[in-house]
Design brief:
The structure holds 3 protein chains of 3 kinds. Chain A is an alpha/beta fold. Chain A has 8 helices and 10 strands. Chain A has a single domain, classed as 3-Layer(aba) Sandwich (Rossmann fold). In chain A, α3 (107-116) runs antiparallel to α4 (130-143). In chain A, 37% of the residues are buried. Chain B has 10 helices and no strands. The chains are: A alpha/beta, B mainly alpha, C mainly alpha. The interface between A and B is medium-sized, with 25 and 19 residues.
Chain lengths: 250, 256, 123
């Protein structure tokens, strides 16, 4: 279980101060497929980077009660649209590198996914197309042998067939103990695929619901999101109205 | 054409043997090539493990070796310059080089206008001994400048070379942020030292190689220093003096 | 093994209900028979692109109703007898008719008018 306790992250200072994350608390048990949604700048990427310890932040992140250290960080893998592979290496060389450093690296899964996505094994990743690069990034995150797979908008630049295929393959190969946290804009597409949706807005969690709950109350994910955001904007309208009335009084 | 050749082979008793020899030679040459290729591949694998994955280190290696060669040449020139100065400032009984040249021409029957290159040249090999004889005419008590003095500033080019090589370290670290953010992967490795190992190894090895070259060059210079001057003209304790002082002054010349 | 190739999902109702509906329709139509093998949960999840929890819920409910039987870890099989098929048929018919009745009531159609319409459009 990954637990985030009151995570806060502030960028800039003085006038340009921006709260990327504001006292975010979240629990992610093993075996869930979680969709992380939010507009640009909501804090999705920052949240993932805090979990992985890439950036300094206030608050605590624990994995099964322990802080994230080089000992347990291999249980978390990361796929990002910034790409974290070595552009000069071939896919095969990557597999060798991973096999050397990650004891749970799955050669079998690697071969299966490379074949499925039809990616060449002996070409430097630099020479792949953008779509192929995204696919490779995700393949390596899947094969690391991690229990928690964090994916940050991994499909920027892939067509819809690619994505559909990917969700299906993922569902086919994921083991029950593997957890996926997927941040994306594509709400409707991932609605059936995920088991839980977490909404971020301005650095705060404004929604956290399982798809089961949504089904039971007969709402779609889009309905839920609209509800949540409308609720927020109602508060803003209320305040503006109050301010407007107090001004007209004086 | 081939038939004519084959006929020639049959009739010529030695032709076949030559061909046989050349086939054997080819086989030997190919074996040697193969062994070299295996060695090259082994080196490549080793260096790949010491540098950031996918980093193009071959040009760096080539430039460093070229740099070491160029610095060696420059250092040798600098050394010869300073040694020449020291050598010429010895007070000889023969007051000028002109007197020496006159002696040589007379003694060896060399016509005016012929050059007097005497180092290693077969024709004037005896001159080499002659110079030593001449130097033995150095005034009593005259001492040549210390080895430390002669070495002053000689190794300056290497300082620049080593500084540039160490800058490479920064490039190595930056590599993980360019093109892709492979730093994200490196920061997730259970082996914390991998990132630093791959960024620091090659520069440190190259600097160590430079140091080896410097030591070898110094030894050669030392040999040269002792070769051209009789022992009585060299102050005792040169080596310890050099180790105490010269080692520190050989990096920065006067005019730098 | 039971094929889900003809199965189409839409937004009308929860997916697990649609899966259950598909199985029941198959039973009523006779294409799904006693002893037929259900695809494994993981395979169906991958085939449809649907979260395993949803698939699990559908299978659990089907098992609760006695329509399928799964041994732990092994495959699930359809368990039917004449009685059960009848029961399922009745249930499906009831839902279909209730849906039609409700929508006609909403449109203000009377019972006699409804029966007349059914007679008219039966062929």
């Amino acid at each position: 279980m990954i637990e985030l306790k009151e995570i806060s992250k502030v960028y800039g200072s003085g006038y340009t101060r921006k709260k990327a994350l504001d006292k975010v608390s979240l629990s992610i048990p093993q075996g869930q497929i979680v969709g992380l949604f939010g507009e640009n700048g909501a804090g999705k990427t920052t949240l993932m980077k805090c979990i992985l310890g890439y950036i300094h932040h206030d608050g605590k992140v624990t994995l099964d009660g322990e802080p994230i250290t080089p000992k347990n960080i291999i249980r978390i893998s990361y796929a990002t649209n910034e790409h974290s592979f070595f552009p000069g290496l071939t896919a095969k060389a990557h597999a060798e590198f991973y096999a050397e450093h990650f004891p749970k690296f799955s050669e079998k899964r690697f071969k299966a996914l490379m074949e499925f996505f039809e990616l060449p094994e002996n070409k430097p990743i630099r020479h792949f197309s953008t779509g192929q690069k995204n696919q490779f990034e995700v393949v390596m995150a899947m094969c690391q042998g991690a229990d928690y797979i964090l994916m940050d908008e991994p499909f920027a630049g892939n067509d819809v067939f690619n994505r559909e295929d990917f969700y299906k393959v993922l569902l086919g190969i994921l083991e029950p103990h593997e957890t996926v946290v997927l941040s994306t804009h594509l709400l409707e597409e991932v609605e059936n695929f995920i088991g839980r949706a977490v909404l971020l807005h301005n650095g705060r969690i404004v929604g956290d619901v399982t798809t089961m709950e949504l089904e039971e109350t007969g709402r779609s994910l889009m309905d839920y999101v609209k509800e949540t955001y409308n609720y927020r904007s109602d508060r803003v309208v209320k305040v503006i109205r109050e301010l407007g009335s107090s001004e007209s009084d004086s | 054409m081939r038939r004519i050749f084959e006929e020639w082979v049959v009739t010529n008793p030695f032709a076949g043997w030559e061909r046989q020899q050349s086939v054997e030679d080819d086989a030997r040459w190919n074996r040697r090539k193969k062994r070299w290729k295996i060695f090259e591949a082994w080196c490549e694998r080793k260096i790949n493990r010491m540098t950031p994955p996918g980093f193009e280190w071959k040009p760096i290696l080539n430039w460093s070796v070229a740099g070491m060669g160029i610095c060696s040449l420059i250092s040798i020139f600098r050394f010869l310059g300073r040694y020449g100065k020291a050598w010429r400032s010895l007070k000889w009984d023969i007051q000028t080089m002109a007197e020496y040249e006159a002696y040589v021409r007379e003694h060896y029957g060399v016509q005016t206008g012929e050059s007097l290159w005497f180092i290693g040249n077969g024709k004037y090999k005896d001159e080499w001994m002659t110079i030593r004889e001449f130097i033995s005419v150095v005034e009593e008590g005259e001492l040549i400048s210390s080895f430390s003095w002669v070495m002053k500033g000689v190794m300056a080019p290497f300082v620049y070379l080593m500084a540039i090589i160490l800058l490479l370290t920064i490039f190595h670290y930056l590599y993980y942020y360019r093109e892709t953010k492979s730093i994200y992967l490196m920061k997730r490795l259970p082996n914390r030292s991998e990132l630093h190992r791959r960024s620091l190894s090659l520069p440190l090895i190259l600097v160590a190689a430079c140091v080896v070259v410097i030591v070898l060059l110094t030894a050669v210079c030392c040999g040269w220093y002792y070769l051209w001057v009789p022992d009585r003209c060299i102050a005792p304790g040169q080596l310890s003096h050099f180790l105490r002082e010269g080692i520190f002054t050989m990096w920065r010349g006067d005019g730098l | 093994m039971i094929s889900f190739e003809q199965f189409l999902m839409d937004d009308s109702s929860p997916i697990y209900l649609q899966i259950i509906g598909y199985i029941k329709s198959g039973i009523v139509a006779g294409t799904i028979r006693d002893g037929d093998e259900m695809p494994s949960r993981r395979m169906l999840s991958a085939l449809l692109g649907v979260n395993p929890n949803t698939i699990q819920k559908a299978y659990a409910l089907l098992e609760e109703e006695g329509i399928i039987h799964s041994r732990s870890g092994a495959k699930s099989f359809v368990v039917l007898d004449g009685e059960k098929i009848e029961a399922v048929r009745e249930e499906m018919l009831k839902h279909t008719v209730l849906a039609a009745v409700n929508s006609m009531k909403q449109m203000g159609v009377s019972k006699t008018e409804a029966l007349a319409l059914i007679g008219k459009y039966w062929s």
